[in-house]
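MOLECULE: protein
FOLLOWS: sequence and fold
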Amino acid sequence: MSNPADPSGIIIQRAEILSPTAQTLINALNVELLGRYPEEGACHFRLDAQEVADGLGAFLIAFRWGTPVGCGAVRRIEVQTGEIKRMYVVPQERGRGVGRAILNAIETEARVLRLSRLVLETGVRQTEAQALYERTGFTRIPPFGEYIDSPLSICMAKSL
């Protein structure tokens, strides 16, 4: 997906969400989120393999020089709308363009799926994630879906 000649060494690839590499990244994300949001019911972890199957969505892994450094997914939730899920960058790679590269790849996948809008949920304590999303054109929207009654959630959207 990314240019192999990219001097940053970042390559984004589609992957199976149940693969060992994907599961390692997802587990690290879950541990981090549970640490930031210890409140009961604060974390929304659900993403099923069929939701990111070909034609419905995609699960992506970012590699830098062959080492997995992040992940993200898109799943169709309406005919023209996709939801970004499971965005994660390992702590030592934050601030080095990995999150933006994953978002760019997700947007590419969304266009392949003929989606015209992306939505996402992030947490009130994830100010760095909020800043990334705002820098890439996402704006706040009212809570949707499972996040409607979540006081710790911030929902955002972007037209493609």
Helices lie at 20-36, 98-112, 127-135.
